[in-house]
Amino acid sequence: MGFVIAVDGPAASGKGTVASRLAALYGYAMLDTGLLYRAVGVRLLGTGGDLDDAAAAEAAAKGLDLAELERAEVRTRAAGEAASRVAVHTGVRAALFDLQRQFTTREPGSVIDGRDIGTVIAPDAPAKLYVTATPEIRAERRWKQLSGQGEAVAYADVLADIHRRDARDSGRDSAPMTQASDAVLLDTSEMTIEQAFDAARRIVETARARSGNLPG
Ligand code: CDP
Q1: pTM for this prediction
Q2: Whose CB among 12, 36, 61, 154 lies 3.0–4.6 Å from 138's, allowing a Cys bridge?
């Protein structure tokens, strides 16, 4: 197993940016697991399926082609909402488990971001971060991102999405979003991207030194 950096946290907390910058810094492979759930949601909607139908969602997850992660459609607001609805189904999570677990074996290491990486997918990861920020700040970041993608949406609606997603992600029975007991909390509310990355890097450096995985 390579050196695994697990990055969990709620929607638009800055975890994706921090994760991809850490991956670039260390030359590790990067997996955004949110894209997997987004792609399952998009796939199901594309075939006219019902997001609350556990069997249909599981079938969509089993038939997922990784090329589908590259589609612009998976980055939309609707895809985020669909993702959190299919993500409650245990069968969907089980269907995506092996692919994610396999990723943890990448050498020299991997950065995996999601909701349950430190708790379920890679509980033995030597470095775990839980990245968060206030709902209002996260809504502002997500609103800017969606607007930049050309998606016209009101800030109030994005904030409502964030609250709904948080409740659904942390309230579900199957692998709910929660900070692993050994994860380091990183609140990026008052931080720029640069500051958040710097803080994350220091957390990972401490974990690398502790595990004997020192910079070569
Ligand atoms: O950044 P944002 O939260 O919008 O999206 P994401 O990270 O792409 O995740 C989309 C949805 O997928 C989340 O709201 C979760 O419901 C689900 N998800 C999950 O259940 N487990 C993961 N490891 C990653 C995402």
Answers
A1: 0.94
A2: 12
